[in-house]
Amino acid sequence: MSDLYQRLRDAIADERPVALATVIEGRNAGAKLVVEPGGVALGTLGHLELDRIVSRDAAGELAAGRTGVRHYGAEGQARETDVSVFIESFSPPPIMLVFGAVDFTAALARAGKLLGFNVVVADARSVFATVKRFPMADRVMVAWPDEVFDAYGHRLGSHDAVCILTHDPKFDVPAVQRAVATEVGYIGVMGSRRTHATRLERLREVGVDQKGIDRLMAPIGLDIGSRTPEETAVSVCAEIIANRTGHAAPSLRDRQGPIHRPSDNR
Amino acid sequence: MKEILSDLDAWRAEGRRVALARVVNVEGSGPRDPGAAMAVSDNGDVIGSVSGGCVEGAVVGEALDVLETGERRMVSFGYSDDEAFAVGLTCGGTIHLFIEPLDW
Questions:
Q1: CA gap A68, A86 in Å, rounded
Q2: How many structural domains comprise chain B?
Q3: pTM here?
Q4: Does a structural domain hold residue A35?
Q5: What is the H or E stretch that residue B58 is in?
Q6: What is the pLDDT of residues A183-202, one digit of tens each?
Q7: Best residue in B8, B9, B24, B102 to probe A by mutation, most A CBs within 10 Å?
Q8: Please, are residues A95 and A120 in contact by the beta-carbon 8 Å criterion?
Q9: Residue A144 lies in domain
């Protein structure tokens, strides 16, 4: 009896995408399919053709990360409503790549975990990139950006985030170069407006085009007067959310003037 | 449902009977999206949430009834303006839940 639950459970634990389709109205209410990418399914809704159609649809919903109710005829017909099926997609957690083991990194990694990200902290300097300093990260890599993107670049999509905190062109430039070559939804780069202006020159020199540059959120974060690492982490995470949802939020990038103002109430 | 899986594992390992309630549809403004889940064990323990607190009490009652009768069901909660103390969502939306025994 517990095969379905176990199959679902194992996929989620292993961070493999999986969908659960449940008949919620119509014949065989409660019947289920556990569907993996490509439409491979375990279980039955009581009719072979219905199973085939729902498996196919569930794989599509899973690929899009959608959860919702779909209606079918008793034998899987479209445009009929004998059977309502709730298709729930379980996607692996989104990825947050944080470049730079600096003083802001631990707070951002903690905030990333709070939002459910699989957080990877990377820095080429082994003295700084240690599990001891970043116990909250899912993975700490002593690595140059190329190595990190070789490992994760192909997996990055609209729900994932790249945060570049190094402030050092040696790391920043290759990290941005590789980030804009991915489908990642958010690329934030830390540094003052002046730092970013210099960085832009270097990025153009190495061939990053305007489309790539337009994707950069720099200076990183929302303009909420954050100053401490924790406040900055909140402003970065809020910007990541606003970016994904498309809601208007006051990004530092879209404003002018200093990031920190002496008149800010502390 | 992800966030309640480890508790569900523990309940199942203890041999507890469990009812699972999942939000399957939301009309208008709702506090939680489809997929939000809570579970109730046969001794009345509760994990998870389906509405941020508005209707959880009523869902526990339905879930215990599902466990008792074995009858899975759809249950809907909406804003109720005629009965001041009726169970409803203060945000004005309607949520539809599917409640079933976790016997699969």
A1: 6
A2: 1
A3: 0.78
A4: yes
A5: helix B56-69
A6: 999 999 999 999 999 999 99
A7: B24
A8: yes
A9: 95-254
